[in-house]
């Protein structure tokens, strides 16, 4: 079952975290390859399906580098990571956390829920930017959001199981 409790359930959930982390990392790598070719006039991304379904339009917008878009750092600053690079870091961390760190990570449920909640909230913000500000659709972005919302769901189950088992012990 999806929300198993106990050692077997934790292993199953950790594998789902790893699988989603791997999927998110792969999507991020594709997004990075699209970003790397934005200035190539001969390049046509597989994720472009027309004027209003264009991932290259989204990745070339100022929102593709969110910290400079928010005015936190200037454009081109080393900390002004693209969303693709930030995604690789996040999803890589999920993959590692779902593997060797899963059973030894202190406060795993709380940390996982916090990070996944931030990811889901950030996806909501980016969906707003995508539909309201950019008036576009990006299939790659949709992939990111599906991974983030799925990870959030897993985190809710992990937190619920963790907090339920602590109540039973007391």
UniProtKB/TrEMBL annotation:
GO terms for molecular function: quinone binding; vitamin-K-epoxide reductase (warfarin-sensitive) activity. Coiled coil: none annotated. Keywords: Disulfide bond, Endoplasmic reticulum, Membrane, Oxidoreductase, Quinone, Redox-active center, Transmembrane, Transmembrane helix. Its main location: endoplasmic reticulum. GO terms for biological process: vitamin K metabolic process. One of its GO terms (cellular component) is endoplasmic reticulum membrane. The chain crosses the membrane at residues 17-34, 81-102, 109-128, 134-157. It is a multi-pass membrane protein. It comes from the Eukaryota. Belongs to the VKOR family. This is vitamin-K-epoxide reductase (warfarin-sensitive). It comes from Coccolithus braarudii. The lineage of its organism: Eukaryota, Haptista, Haptophyta, Prymnesiophyceae, Coccolithales.
């Amino acid at each position: 079952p999806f929300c198993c409790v106990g050692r077997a359930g934790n292993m199953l959930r950790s594998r789902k975290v790893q699988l989603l982390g791997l999927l998110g990392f792969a999507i991020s790598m594709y997004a990075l390859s699209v970003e790397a070719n934005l200035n190539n006039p001969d390049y046509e991304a597989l994720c472009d399906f027309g004027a209003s379904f264009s991932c290259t339009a989204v990745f070339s917008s100022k929102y593709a580098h969110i910290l400079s878009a928010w005015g936190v750092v200037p454009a081109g600053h080393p900390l002004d990571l693209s969303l693709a690079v930030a995604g690789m870091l996040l999803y890589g961390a999920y993959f590692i956390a779902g593997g060797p760190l899963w059973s030894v990570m202190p406060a795993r449920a709380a940390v996982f829920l916090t990070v996944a909640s931030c990811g889901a909230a950030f996806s909501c913000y980016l969906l707003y930017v995508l539909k309201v500000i950019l008036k576009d659709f990006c299939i790659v972005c949709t992939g990111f959001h599906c991974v983030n919302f799925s990870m959030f769901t897993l985190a809710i189950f992990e937190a619920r199981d963790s907090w339920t088992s602590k109540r039973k012990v007391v």
